[in-house]
Amino acid sequence: MPQTDSGINTPPLENECHEHIGPQLPDFTTVMDACRGRLHKRLSELLSLEQLCRQAGSLIQSRTEALIDVDEFTLPLVSLVIGNPDTAKHCLFVTAGIHGVERIGTQVLLAWLESVVERCRWDSHWRQQFESEICIVAVPIVNPGGMLRDSRCNPNGIDLNRHAPIDAEDKVPFLVGGQRLWRKIPWYRGRRDDDFEPEFIALQNIIGRHCKVGRPSIVVDFHSGFGFQDHLWIPYAYRRLPIADIGSYVALKLLWERNFPHHNYVFGPQAMHYLSHGDIWDYFYQHCRAQGITLLPLTLEMGSWLWVKKHPQQLFSFAGLFNPTVPHRHARVLRGHLLLIDFLLAAARNMEHWQPKGEQEREMQQMAQSLWYRQL
Ligand SMILES: [Zn+2]
């Protein structure tokens, strides 16, 4: 078994857990009052998010984490919580829209949150889980300024998923793997390693507030734009060696495959496809682990090349490269991932029932080696 990363070296964060919480910002509705009427054509996802909160009433607690100035707007970066974040034993983080052009990720996440809220109305067992067992922490639009502009980057030209202070150990694809050459080329990381963007700080605050020792969590981060199939990516992006928790990831993959043998996801390490600098989940995983906190991040990378192949006209619009544009395909994508996210919610709630320990964990690590790491 190749050596895993037990010796973790995370640069110190400016803010540790409780100091993360910044000054109180105006609430979500107040911020929306100033921009709601002008968002229909440019950022309808934010209106859908607000509508979801309105319909959910007390089931969802929203919080303005940052204010993003872009063009003539001041947009809220909002987090939502379902459940009791003080007493929940487990946590599922769901994030989308880190790359503003990948709107479909936000739409899939909002569709799932709507189904969670609706089910709370009539399924008492479903609702009970949010009383003390688990909480959902959702950030459906991490990069509202980028989404308003249909851009991968945030309004400062930074690719938020190349922005964390962590460098790849091996060669990354030219430009795509993250670059510090020029802000106007995509995949720009930012000038330095210690000058963080507000969206990054907001995510850091949210993780700092909700991740605790003894409260294991799963993260699902929604993206689109790579490959012909839907991928579930295991970290790391910065190195080829297996992540310390690789045994848990194999156990989760086996659990998924045993329960849903006809699924259609490619479940494996991202590093088998490409490496990149500055991956935020590499960074947050390591930061949590250094504090003894279990956080298992997964990236759902929806295979948009298939949508383009079936409807080549999409090639003529930048957004068309990342989002399904034909209505029936769009609907299929919106419903296609609900089962997976429901499963991950249940997996997060029951982590102690499937997370391998001792000899079982060693077996899972060996399985990981034969599946993915034979060349190392
Ligand atoms: Zn993306």
From TrEMBL:
Domain Peptidase M14, chain residue ranges per copy: 80-301
GO MF annotation list: metallocarboxypeptidase activity; zinc ion binding
Family matches, as Gene3D superfamilies: Zn peptidases
Gene Ontology annotations of biological process type: proteolysis
InterPro entries named among the record's database cross-references: Peptidase_M14 (IPR000834)
UniProt superkingdom: Bacteria
Pfam family, one: Peptidase_M14
Name used for this protein in its record: Peptidase M14 domain-containing protein
